[in-house]
UniProtKB/TrEMBL annotation:
GO molecular function: catalytic activity
Domain of life: Bacteria
Organism: Lentzea waywayandensis
One Pfam family, short name: Abhydrolase_6
Annotated coiled-coil segments of the chain: none
Name of this chain's protein: Pimeloyl-ACP methyl ester carboxylesterase
Length: 227
């Protein structure tokens, strides 16, 4: 039986509203879609917020995470309702790993995300470099809005270590954004391979969930139909 429920988890610096196009495509195809508004203060808190939404599902669910949201679904995805995991240009930590450990040794020549020094325990991206680094294939106006509406990302969230990674117990799919300047594509491929994920590669920026919603929705449906 195919999974008909989908739960979408956003990453750092943004909120769940960016999933709207993916949400609408999936709803049009008959899926029941929920969007987690994780606070991005701590991994533990974000996993708890995700489990709240998973508790509301009435059957097998595809759990989807973008960027830091991949760490969240790796932690929260051991919930009984989760039938499949989908990583969208996302971190996929193993047991004991955090976002901090995964970004500690970037591939040679990889772009450096323009993350500003912590401010009262929170991180922001340099607004002037946001478009090029995070959302290079979005219109300038949309990228400016995302830069101006950034959600403060708690440094504790980056340090949160995954306890038992869900990808070790559930099948996973991974969309590599080949033009990503936040998480280097080689790092994405390495994490996907380690997780044993079914991999799709799409030309797009880190904001591929907004710039290529059709490709993202198709991969989610592929996972749902494989359950």
């Amino acid at each position: 039986m195919s999974a008909r429920n989908v739960v979408l988890v956003h990453g750092g610096f943004v909120d769940g509203a960016g999933w709207q196009a993916v949400h609408d495509l999936l709803v049009a195809d008959g899926y029941r879609v929920s969007v987690v508004q994780n606070p991005t203060l701590s991994l533990e808190g974000d996993a708890a917020a995700t489990r709240l939404i998973l508790e509301q599902q009435d059957g097998p669910t595809v759990l989807v995470g973008h960027s830091y949201g991949g760490a969240v679904i790796s932690e929260a995805g051991t919930h009984d309702n989760v039938a499949a995991l989908v990583y969208i240009a996302a971190f996929a930590p193993d047991k004991g790993e955090s976002v901090n450990t995964l970004i500690a040794d970037p591939p040679p020549g990889a772009p450096v995300p323009p993350i500003l020094p912590p401010q009262d325990g929170f991180l922001f991206l340099d607004k002037e470099k946001f478009h090029a680094s995070f959302a290079g294939d979005l219109p300038e106006g949309r990228a400016r809005f995302l830069a101006d509406s950034q959600v403060p990302w708690g440094v504790g969230a980056l340090a949160g270590a995954v306890s038992e990674p869900a990808w070790r117990v559930s099948p996973s799919w991974y969309l590599v954004a080949t033009d990503d300047r936040m998480i280097p594509p080689p790092a994405q491929r390495q994490m996907a391979e380690r997780a044993g994920a079914t991999v799709t590669e799409v030309a797009g920026s880190h904001a591929i969930y907004e710039s290529q919603p059709g490709a993202v929705a198709e991969l989610v449906k592929q996972a749902a139909e494989a359950v």
